[in-house]
Amino acid sequence: MVFPGELPPCYAGHGLLDQVFMNVINNAVQSLGDHPGDRRIAINTDLSGGFIVVRIGDSGPGVPDKIRNRIFEPFYTTRAQGTGIGLAFSRRVMESMGGLIELGASPLGGAEFRIRIPAGEARKVPRDR
Q1: Which of 66, 68, 64, 71 has the alpha carbon at shortest distance from 24?
Q2: Is residue 125 part of a domain?
Q3: What's the CATH code of the domain at 64?
Q4: Is the pTM of this model over 0.70?
Q5: Residue/partner pairs of 69-74 with CB below 8 Å, 24 or more apart
Q6: How confident is the model at residue 83, as a pLDDT?
Q7: Which residues of the chain have a pLDDT value below 50?
Q8: How many whole angstroms separate alpha carbon 116 and alpha carbon 52?
Q9: Left if phi > 0, otherwise alpha if psi is -120 to 50, otherwise beta: which for 109?
Q10: I need a labelling partner for 17 at 20 to 30 A (CA). Which of 7, 110, 116, 118 fits?
Q11: How many domains does the chain divide into?
């Protein structure tokens, strides 16, 4: 793990990047709402292939396989009070700055979002698909 003081600079829209982090953290908090047992959120940083990688994972129920391909679609939501805008917005922001946001499994048992931010000059990120 790389600690924030050891990370290189990145060139990203500061307010937009804040919103991406808040969208993902808010989703993690909501997923833990009624989840029984241990409720934890972990945020880790690393440097990989010229990208700052921020991993935000939780101990919630995770994202069911049947909706994994849809969660980044605009207006798609599984929550009664949700708008389906947060993750779609987050993906668009990350792609616009040459980054990427991906869904995976958290070591804590729930969902983990990997946010890949170009370190240094902006460039396109190869997708892990």
Answers
A1: 71
A2: no
A3: 3.30.565.10
A4: yes
A5: 71/103, 72/101, 72/103
A6: 66
A7: 129
A8: 6
A9: left
A10: 110
A11: 1
